[in-house]
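Example 3.2
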Amino acid sequence: MANKPALKILVVDDEESILELLTYNLEKQGYDVRTASNGQAGVDLAKKFHPDLVLLDIMMPKMDGVEACRQLRAVPELSKTYIVFLTARAEEYSEVAAFDVGADDYILKPIKPRALISRIAALFRRDSAKKNISNQIKIDDLLIDRTSYTVRTGSHEIGLPKKEFELLYFLAQNPNKVFSRDDLLQNIWGTDVYVLSRTVDVHIRKLREKIGEDTIVTVKGVGYKFKANTQKQFVS
């Protein structure tokens, strides 16, 4: 039996010492690692390398990490790629900006290799745990497809970043059930990742812009629910 291909990780940082440190530790874990020293080079390499995960600094020459993340999220072939920021920027507005453009996690430097590897493994484990979930959900005029990370409304196809899609899919699996922000953070981002509760609001706002303002309803003082008028249908 052929060995399973190694998961691919792209590290983008302008500090050579960090690139060397992460490459060494990640390759020890069996990952296929590539590096880039600025945001523009990272975007260009990602389009060819198709990484499963990108580790991304914020402050870099030629293109900062936030803009690089924005451009990566616009590439359909990278719709399932995780993007994790590794940065010394501890300000809340930097973290919010990162999640606003589609980040999956935000980790502050200095880097602790063992802790980082544990968080990366947790992200990939959640992918494995989802393999037995039905591939499609159809509710009203929405068709949500896990295989392509797309949503269709009639003949119109909507591409979504990974976390937006996972949030929508989770809510659609439980139509008309209300979830608090903490519930959504735990189920979508997991207990291994620390993110602000405002991150949920940002992702909900972006989903409403793409699939309709009335699809996800705010229940004041409680949380959010997916509003469904017909019984959900699962398609294998």
